[in-house]
TrEMBL record:
Name of the protein in question: Enoyl-CoA hydratase
SUPFAM superfamilies assigned to the protein according to its UniProt record, in alphabetical order: ClpP/crotonase
Similarity section: Belongs to the enoyl-CoA hydratase/isomerase family.
Organism: Letharia lupina
Keywords of this entry: Signal
Signal peptide: 1-23
InterPro entries: ClpP/crotonase-like_dom_sf (IPR029045), Enoyl-CoA_hydra/iso (IPR001753)
Keyword Amino-acid biosynthesis applies: no
Amino acid sequence: MRISTKHLLTSLSALLIAAPTHADPLTQPAAAKHGTLSFQTTGNVTRVTINNGPINIIDPNLITDLLTYLVSIQPSTTTTTPKVVIFDSSNPDWFLGPLDTVLTHNPITQDKITATINYSYLAPLLQNITTTAFIAEINGRNIGGGHELALQMDMRFAGPNAHTGFFEDGLGLTVGGGGQLFLGQLINKGRALEYLLSAKAFDGPTGAALGLFNEYYPTGAALTSAVNTLAQRIGLFPQDALNDTKSALDNYLNPSPALLATDVTNFLALNGNPVSQALQTKFLALSDNETDGAFEKNLPEDITELYQ
């Protein structure tokens, strides 16, 4: 099944948000249906903790829970939305893993297509919910699709265990959910191509030096303390100001919905290539179906093992 750019653009445009918010106290979000997210609200700040198996893989359960939560905090005249959302992980080794390769591996079913398209909706929501600042607190591996989502949050802060990068080109694919576009914006075209085409990883200090991370902290405690302090400070100020500031920068700097939709359709086209499918078969075997083994832990560096 081929998804057209026009179809995706129509769907993504429907996620553009522009509405005032209500002033009632912020309430605790509803429990995530699949239990992959937990929530802690303090003042105008909500901390969202990811907990989805050994590597926090981006599978249909996590995609559904993320999409449901993000849709629930769209600006509304009848509900109050958080000024800041911090994403962290309960797993000390993984912030976010890759998009589940099973979703893109043949045979392609309607359920797999639905999950992949729902994944592509997450980035526009992170960008277009302009009444909320999204912060990634990264102190673990953040690989593939997880790296892509973190890139499309508003700020990223790294701890000593941060290890992040893409391996999609090694599978004969492209970073098709907007991640490569945002990476190029953050660290410049030449650097982005260096890391994308060679599947190189960033550690915390390197990522901070290149502008991928706002700041690097040498301990997890220092990371969490700094992020909390920043979030609470942002949360003091009026939400209308936050909305206008984020909207202005997004409108000026972000890829258009048309470019994001084209990125997705190009990914899906490459995914139909027999070369990519053969590489994905080998990838699933080497990673033991993406379990927390030595191969998965050393991504993106280990992607070259597909060619040995």
